[in-house]
């Protein structure tokens, strides 16, 4: 069981504070555990408290993890989430904007229900905006000011898969959000970048190894990579001084169909 630290202990020395959304599984869990193992204090946000507790249980002894149940598509949840982080840690150095959903997979655009489209947009785009806005406000006003936001894009921020209109549209939009936030954050020491990930081995991508629909209509298995490699890349981006920024990084399974996809 992790040791609970006091607020004074949380802010001793150079310990940094991160918030990871979608921390209950997959990439979010891997990144949160990597940051905790590297000495960060980490707030874990997600919709399922039991999954957040499972993530916290993977932290090293003495690490400081704060699970907070939150649906990033709901403004009230986001406000309460950032208030909890501020109350516990006093500041925020990193937001890993990771929460997202594929939505219904393999549905042609003409058959996609509006409710499904709206759910993907609310989670992937509106949720990312709400969290970035809240982080921006806190980073601008805290002492010392500044911080970093890393948005989880996707290979689909560049090139779509068949029948992925909602996911692809939101990931393209996320790139615009990253660029705009990066520009607007300059006067306040807020660095904003994006990591575009392809075929990290998680529960969400398990089906790719058995067969994924290709642009030519065929179904073919695709290679995957260890999600720990993604986590280490995010940690590298996070640990840079605020004077340096990885604006965009692409981390993917080497042989996956991206370069030349379709």
UniProtKB/TrEMBL annotation:
Its Gene Ontology molecular function terms?
A: oxidoreductase activity
Keyword tags: Oxidoreductase
Which superkingdom does the taxonomy of this entry point to? Bacteria
Q: In this protein, which residues make up the domain named Ketoreductase?
A: 16-198
Q: Which Gene3D superfamilies does the entry mention?
A: NAD(P)-binding Rossmann-like Domain
Per its UniProt record, what InterPro entries does this chain match? KR_dom, NAD(P)-bd_dom_sf, Sc_DH/Rdtase_CS, SDR_fam
- Pfam families per the UniProt record, alphabetical: adh_short
Give the family, as the similarity comment puts it: Belongs to the short-chain dehydrogenases/reductases (SDR) family.
Name of the featured protein = 3-oxoacyl-ACP reductase
